[in-house]
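Supplementary Methods, section 5.1.

A reviewer requested that the exact input to the structure prediction be made available. We therefore reproduce it here, unchanged from the version used in the analyses.
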Amino acid sequence: MVIFDSVVKKKLEFIPLENDFVRIYVCGPTVYDDAHLGHAKSAISFDLLRRTLVALGFKVKFVKNFTDIDDKILKKMEDSGKSLKEITEFYISRYLDDMNALNVLRADIEPRATECIDEIIEFVEELLDNGAAYKIQGDGIYFDTSKDSDYLSLSSKKDSDENIARVASNAQKKDEKDFALWKFDEKYYKAKFGCGRPGWHTECVVMIKKYLADNKQKYLIDIHAGGMDLLFPHHENEAAQCRCAEHKNLAKYWMHNGFVQVNNEKMSKSLGNSFFIKDALKIVPGEVLRFYLMSSHYRANFNYSVNDLFSSKKRLDKIYRLKKRLQGAKKGISDEKFKAEILDALSDDLNTSLALSIVDSMVNSANERLDKNPKDKMKKGEILANLDFIKETLGILYTDENLYFQFGVSETKKAEISDLIAQRDAAKKEKNFALADEIREKLALQNITLMDTPNGTVWEISNETDIK
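The structure derived from this sequence is encoded cell-by-cell as follows.
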C-alpha cells in the first residue's frame, strides 16, 4: 500500500512500525455543536483507510478523541446556562448518531480531554522541567517554540511568513509563535503550576502517549490523521511538543483530508453555509451521503451541492437494485479478481474514484449476466459475495434493500401503506381483482410502487418525492 504523506508531500510505501499491526490516531470533534460536512469527510476518509488496512490483512488499533473542554464549549455554557457535562454529553451523542448513519465504525478507544487531566498536567510539568515551556503570570503555561529546532517543519512554514498564531496573542510571550499548553482558570483543575484547563494542542499528544504509543519505536504511532485545516497549527504544535518531551517523532506518516465547500464557497459559520450532517440526512439516507463524499479523493477539496448529492444517490440506487434483485439468493464465493482490483485501487492512496468505477462495472456485468440467465444460482451467490465485500470495505449496502427505497416515509404513512397492501391481498384471495387494482392505483398516485414477489408484496417510492 502507498499513502500520501502530508509532510514530504508525496506517496510513500506504507510500512508499519510493528509487522502487521497499525496504530492510527485521528483528531475528533470539539463537541460544542452538531457535526458538519467537514467532520463527515474526515471521518469517512479515515474509516475507509481503516477498512482498507483490515481488508489487506493488517490489525488496526484506531483512536479518535473528543475535545470536551475548550473556549467554544465555555462560550456555549455561558450562552445556554448549561453545564460542561450537559453540553458535551449531548453533542458527543449526536456526533455518534451521525457517524452511525454514515456507517463509520466506532473507534477502538474514544478518549476525552477531561479523562486525561492528570496525564496532561504531568506532561506540562515535564515540558516546564526541561525548559521547553514557561509561565506567564495570570495567563497560563506556554510552549517555547525556540526550543524545537524542527518547529514548522511539519507544515513547511519554516521559511514562510505564515507562521503566526491564529488567535489573539499575549505581549508577554517570548515569541509570537509560542502557544498555550495550560490556561489559568480557578474554576477548573488543580495543578502545582496553577489551576486551569488544558490547551487544545496538548491533549492529543497526551492521549496518543496514554492510549496508543509504542515506546520502543522511533515514532509513537504509525499514522496521525485529520482535516487539512489541522496541519497548522494543531498538528505542528503536537509534533513540536512530542519532540521536546519524548525526544522522538509523533507519527511516521501524516494524512490529511481536503476541505469541504458548499456551492463553491468555503464552508464557514460566518458565511452561513456550515452545512450540518443532520441537514443532509433529512433528504437522503446516510449511506448516500457517505457514497457521495467518497466519490471524490479524500485529499481533494470537495464541493457539496444538493444536485450532485441526488446524482450520487442514483448511482448508489443501481447497486441497491442489484442487491434487491438477489433477494432469496444464498451467498457464495466472491470473485477474487474483483476483490483484488478493488484493493489495488484503495491501496493507491485510497483511490475511491477508481474503486467505485470498478464497482459500477461489476454491477453492469452482473445485471447483464442475470438478464441472460435469471436462475443462475452460482452467479447469484458470487454477486452476493461481491456485494458483501463492498459492504465491508467501502462501508455501504448496510441497509435492507427494501427499506433503502422507502427512505423519507413516516411511520404513520408506512402503517397506512401496509394496511392497504393487506386489503389488496385479501381482495386478491377473494378474486376481487377490480378492488386489488384500485388499491394499486391509489398507491401509485402517491408515488408508491408495488412489487409482488414469492415472499409477499413489497413497495418503494417511485421517484425522489418524499412521502411523509
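The radius of gyration is 26 Å. These observations are discussed further in the main text.
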